[in-house]
């Protein structure tokens, strides 16, 4: 490998990373006039799990290689040692900004294998909670993205509204983040009476709050200067790299699983899929802001049209019986004992179920060998695929633009653990 500038400034291993990447990709080694530097971690949550190895010519990015670390969670392997229902709390830990979405994707996959019919009331509540999850995830993205650019006020406003959503999650599940509220076959508990008022109060104020963020940012010349024309990703490149979600729609591809491959009753809701042809950081900002408005509309439809009825399927050998039934019915007591101690068998087969998470296509591939524990669980995470598009978006741009581009793809490192 050719010598690079200021080698004493480099951490051990940087040259090896670049040399290894270049060897596999057939890229010529860095030239004498370029410098290889580490960038990151730029956020506490990326410490040890993501750094960027940049080759720069002056302030221009010549090449970029994400070097991901490992959280060593081993969640996919751990799933094989648990009963099917015990896997749900593990799915919370994949993406701490959208635990409900991960719960839903996994439950839908297992329910497909079981052939369970989920009551309409449970489906509406699942949609409602998933859209609230999308809003709170987008709020974290917007707040941290704006803070990276230097707009601290927006960060404080976004976390104010996110706190309202976390309080709703806490009232319905008992937890603010790792909710584990969904069950295979429905939901764990009927929401408390004040849940509906909390949701309605939030939906009443949220459109005005989104407008407040836009008033602060959309016409701001600094914000526009840092976002417009930065981090270009064409539709062809986005598809080739497996990019999904808002970054894909910001590249002009009109694709949303909620509309195009509906699940959990999404076909009953009216909403638009925001798309932009600008293909830059600005487009990703605009698409997510529009998505928050649409999520508020979906939540309102779910609240207004919430049907009466049960929140779990009629499957006594899979669903835990009511506690009152256990006090009076021996059969219910036996079902409870067997489900808790032995789990429930799932017909042999394999299935893949994907949902539209705030970051894109989140899918679960589940293989059953007919026992009470999954033979294999594999998770398709959007952040892992989106991260590989980073070099395409940053190549030829200035070093300062890399910060704006990373914020625009909205990755969560928990998803990238392999």
Molecular structure report:
It is built from 17 helices and eight strands. With 418 residues, the chain is mostly helical. A three-stranded antiparallel beta sheet has the order 1-2-3. Strand 7 and strand 8 form a beta hairpin. Helix 5 packs antiparallel against helix 6, helix 5 packs antiparallel against helix 12 and helix 5 runs antiparallel to helix 17. It is globular, with a radius of gyration of 23 Å. The two termini are 29 Å apart.
Q: How would you spell out the order of helices and strands?
A: HEEEHHHHHEEHHHHHHHHEEEHHH
Q: How would you describe the oligomerization state of the chains in this entry?
A: single chain
Number of helices: 17
Average of pLDDT: 90
Radius of gyration: 23 Å
Class of secondary structure makeup: mainly alpha
What portion of the residues fall into strands of 2 or more residues? 5-15%
Q: Flag low-confidence runs.
A: 1-10
Largest sheet: 3 strands, antiparallel
**Fraction of residues in helices?**
40-55%
State the separation between the terminal residues, measured CA to CA: 29 Å
Please tally the β strands and state the result. Answer: 8
Largest sheet strand order: 1-2-3
Shape from CA axes?
Answer: globular
Structural key phrases:
disordered N terminus; 8 strands; mainly alpha; three-stranded antiparallel beta sheet; 17 helices; globular; 418 residues
Question: Could you outline the blueprint of secondary structure elements for this entry?
Answer:
Elements: H1 14-25, E1 35-39, E2 50-57, E3 60-68, H2 75-79, H3 88-92, H4 99-114, H5 120-149, H6 152-173, E4 182-183, E5 186-187, H7 194-217, H8 221-227, H9 235-240, H10 246-249, H11 257-260, H12 281-304, H13 323-328, H14 330-342, E6 349-357, E7 360-368, E8 376-380, H15 382-387, H16 390-394, H17 399-409
Antiparallel strand pairs: 1-2, 2-3, 4-5, 6-7, 7-8
Helix pairs in contact: 4-5, 5-6, 5-12, 5-17, 6-7, 7-12, 12-17
């Amino acid at each position: 490998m050719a010598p690079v500038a200021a080698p004493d400034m480099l951490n051990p291993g940087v040259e090896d990373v670049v040399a290894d990447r270049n060897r596999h990709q057939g890229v010529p080694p860095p030239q004498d006039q370029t410098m290889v530097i580490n960038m990151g971690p730029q956020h506490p949550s990326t410490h040890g799990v993501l750094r960027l190895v940049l080759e720069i010519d002056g302030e221009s990015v010549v090449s970029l290689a994400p070097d991901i670390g490992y959280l060593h969670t081993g969640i996919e392997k751990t799933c094989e040692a648990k009963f099917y229902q015990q896997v749900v709390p593990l799915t919370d830990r994949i993406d701490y900004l959208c635990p409900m979405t991960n719960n839903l994707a996994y439950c839908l996959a297992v329910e497909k294998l079981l052939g369970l019919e989920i009551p309409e009331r449970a489906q509406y509540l699942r949609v409602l909670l998933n859209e609230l999850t999308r809003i709170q995830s987008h709020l974290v993205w917007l707040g941290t993205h704006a803070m990276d650019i230097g707009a601290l006020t927006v960060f404080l406003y976004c976390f104010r509204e996110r706190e309202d959503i976390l309080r709703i999650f806490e009232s319905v599940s008992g937890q603010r983040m790792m909710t584990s509220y969904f069950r295979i076959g429905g939901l764990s508990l009927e929401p408390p009476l004040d849940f509906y008022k909390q949701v309605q109060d939030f939906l009443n104020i949220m459109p005005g709050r989104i407008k407040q963020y836009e008033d602060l940012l959309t016409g701001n010349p600094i914000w526009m200067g840092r976002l417009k024309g930065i981090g270009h990703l064409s539709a062809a490149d986005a598809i080739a790299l497996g990019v999904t979600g808002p970054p894909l729609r910001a590249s002009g591809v009109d694709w949303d699983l909620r509309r195009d491959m509906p699940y959990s009753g999404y076909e009953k809701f009216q909403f638009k899929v925001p798309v932009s042809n600008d293909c830059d950081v600005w487009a990703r900002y605009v698409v997510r802001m529009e998505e928050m408005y649409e999520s508020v509309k979906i939540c309102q439809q779910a609240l207004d049209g919430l049907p009466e009825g049960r929140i779990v399927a009629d499957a006594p050998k899979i669903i835990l019986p009511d506690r009152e039934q256990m006090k009076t019915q021996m059969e219910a007591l036996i079902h409870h004992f067997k489900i808790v101690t032995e789990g429930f068998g799932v017909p042999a087969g394999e299935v893949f179920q994907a949902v539209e998470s705030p970051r894109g296509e989140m899918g679960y591939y589940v293989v059953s060998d007919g026992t009470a524990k999954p033979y294999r669980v594999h998770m398709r995470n959007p952040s892992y695929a989106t991260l590989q598009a980073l070099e395409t978006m940053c190549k030829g741009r200035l070093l300062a633009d890399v910060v704006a581009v990373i914020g625009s793809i909205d990755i969560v490192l928990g998803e990238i653990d392999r």
